[in-house]
Description:
The complex is a heterotrimer.
Chain A: H1 2-33, H2 40-61, H3 66-98, H4 103-125, E1 130-131, E2 140-143, E3 146-149, H5 150-172, H6 174-184, H7 188-191, H8 196-221, E4 224-225, H9 229-244, H10 249-269, H11 275-289
Helix pairs in contact in A: 1-5, 1-8, 1-9, 1-10, 2-3, 2-4, 2-8, 2-9, 3-4, 3-8, 5-6, 5-8, 6-8, 9-10, 10-11
Chain B: H1 6-23, H2 29-54, H3 62-81, H4 97-115, H5 117-120, H6 128-147, E1 158-159, H7 161-171, H8 176-197, H9 199-209, H10 211-216, H11 221-247, E2 249-250, H12 257-270, H13 275-291, H14 299-313, H15 324-327
Helix pairs in contact in B: 1-8, 2-8, 2-11, 2-12, 2-13, 3-4, 3-6, 3-7, 3-11, 4-11, 8-9, 8-11, 9-11, 12-13
Chain C: E1 12-21, E2 24-34, E3 39-43, H1 50-57, E4 65-70, E5 73-74, H2 80-85, E6 88-90, H3 103-109, H4 119-124, H5 127-146, H6 162-174, E7 180-184, H7 192-208, E8 212-216, H8 220-226, E9 229-234, E10 237-242, H9 244-248, H10 251-258
Parallel strand pairs in C: 3-8, 3-9, 6-7, 7-8
Antiparallel strand pairs in C: 1-2, 1-4, 4-5, 9-10
Amino acid sequence: MLATTIQNIINALQWGSFYALIALGYTMVYGVLTLINFAHGDIFMVGAYIAFFVATFILSMLGLPGWIALALTIPLTMILTSAVGVSLERVAYRPLRRKGAHRLYVVITALMCGLILEHANLALLGASRKAFPALITEHVYTIGGVTFTNLKVAVIFTAILSFVILHWIVTKTKVGMAMRAISYDKFAVPLMGIPIDSIIVITFALGSGFAGLAGILFAMSYPVLEPYMGALIGWKAFIAAVVGGIGDIRGAFLGGFLLGAVEIMVVAFFPSTYRDLIAFTVLLVILSLKPTGLFGIAKTTKI
Amino acid sequence: MFRKYTVQLILVTLGGIITYLAYEELIGLYTLSVLMFMGVNIIMSTSLNLVNGNMGEFSCGHAGFMCVGAYVSSLLGVLLFSKDKIFGPPLLNPDLAIYFFPLVIIAGGIAAAFAGLLVALPSYKTRGDYLAIITIAANYIIISSIENLNVIGGSRGFMGMKKVINAMEDIIYLPWMVIWVFVFTVATVWALRRYTSSTFGKGVAAICQDEVAAEIMSVNTNKIKTITFMLSSGLAGIAGGLFAYIIGYVNPGSFNILKSTEALVMVYLGGMGSLSGAVLSAILFTVLLELLRPLQIIKWVVIPLLLIVLMQFRPEGIMGNRELSDIFPRLKRFYKFK
Amino acid sequence: MQTQTTSSMPVLEIRKMTQRFGGLVAVSNFSVTLGRNQLTGLIGPNGAGKTTVFNLISGFYQPSEGEIFINGTPTAGLKPHKVTSLGVARTFQNIRLWNQMSVLDNIRVAQHGSLDYGFFGAMFRTRSYVDCEAKIEKEARELLEIFELDKQADELPTNLAYGLQRKLEIVRALSEKPQLLLLDEPAAGLNSVDAQELIRLIHWIHETFDVTILLIEHHMDVVMELCSEIKVIDFGQTIAEGTPEQIRNHPAVITAYLGDDTI
Lengths: 303, 338, 263
């Protein structure tokens, strides 16, 4: 019993790590721009594909061993995925923002960007799934009936480490302070001499970079890539971010793990087809009870 | 004298011509189905426009309600009028299908309207992006529930609606689907126009523009929100019912977020809050989808790209928040379509 | 819904109302009784809790303690639109018109409380719908004409001069035929010429429309000129009440506005 519980907790943590990492990007962009970047799930997918190409290139072309390949793949993927996220911002979102378009038009543009990423991938690489190369050898450990692999533990620790880094950036650095300032008052910030566009670019770069990291980890854990892999997981991560209280990175992190836990629990007790149904129902209930999420601050209406 | 009936006359003539062409098989089945999907899309975009445009909420799960309507009217139609391996013999004489068909579609709409409560009730306390999530969750919940109902086919889908249509055509041979899609499309636009132009329905715009002021200036905001969400999702349900009978087959996968996104695109393409914009963009969008069909998978790269480019040049959609009659004031003389 | 007022029953009666936000006491132990056709001013420094009193009366907040009666009916637990149909209408400190709706529609929508038809009436254009809409439109146009806004009936409120927007908000409130009109700083942002005109307008409304008015105002001269009775609050506490003359010389009021000079 205890062993099963611990096993489920480990599974939930690992599964939640992906949601948490993606949700972090959603929430950072939202915090700064109040923009739901619906392309973010697909950026995660792009990240996984970039990791695939980088890793395959390093392994087969350069013939380097797996651990070096991994050490090179992680930074390269994060940088390249950041570049994708930032270029979306520059090409699609920023011009609209400059024109003062309604916020929701930017959201629709984000949705469209996501569609383009998915289907361009499908058109370029075809519908066949890609098998991600094994970069490290997986060791299975069993302690007292609880089974886990070194990869699972690495995923969980990477997620926690990423959170700590992002949290440090947001709360302690000047850039983070500027980010929070923008989310409070978009109009006063430029008057204080803060280059708002650079801050936005940094936000997108960070968010997309960590989505890329999630892509690598996901590809290593479930080594089958397909163009639609980002869609559902992206929507869910977004919901996780909202349940945590969108705009707050602690919320996104917690929401991600919460969603992971709910899904693992559902699968443990019900047929797996009920996973989405029950997970979404739980989220709906949470949002009905706490309409601004767990960490969200209720906006007081002032008359 | 006749002038104020111009729109009605045009519509009756148009409906008559399409029916005649379909009856004489002068236009092909393909063109006909495109025309019918156009009608379905018009219902989808105008009904979503009520919530997203007029009320200023951000519903991104419209296809969920379409799904409810599609399933309820399909199941009801098959249950009542055709022999089915799940439901057994028809409950009513299949000859009656010809009279009850619109009621079956409306029943789907009513069921979808009640599904709309899933979003309407949380909307009392929640607004904006948080409500958007609830709509997405509602969409997934609806699809997922049906996928798990193996009695009605689960994710494999449900069929048998063609038999109901055949039963109707056996009595009187007319292109019934074309007629009913046309009638329901016109009725939808008409109902929405009546709703939003009444003082009662203007409460919707008041909520959009200043909810606090609306509530304090005697608008029962919760009631208006409930009615608006129910009307919008009910109409989506009607669109779903028609969709199911046009294709003759439904499966939950065809009402996923991508379908909701299509509806969203049509609303924003037309211009938020513009009813004529929503109609126009639905027509344009359907045509565009068909024109680009030969591109196959690249279609879904080209269309979003076109939309992104369009939004860069016209960030307020085709019509902005204006109506056709605002752009061509002379139309107002004919505009008795209320 | 409007109850018949007997002359003895106060239009507004507040008994020992207190409102807390977390640890902050925004309004403390506030009591007031407004008889029919009274014009009372509510003044106090910034943050004294004046607008909170209005929000409590109009049902936007529920008081932590105490009771509010409109024409003898307790408002506890009523939603704002219900309170409005008891005969209360208000304006806002920052103008809150519906800006994408014509001036006429702004008045029309404010009649929601007295509609004789519902959703199906609107759909099928029933008799009661047609009659009700005709009546609303006629009355709205008449009211706009009385206040000389009829030429702007089809304009959007944003195209109106600031002073006219303030006026329109008062007209919108009046269109609900209230017995109690709450005016939240109607002269805010107006220059002295416009403010003078506003004083005349409020005075005229008070005489013509048989309505009880409670007025929040910062401009002292406006309050002194208009009101027969003034209540002063500071930090949520009522510190003085009386006629303009009494208030002018009240030591507590002078302290609240000018500060304590016994350093």
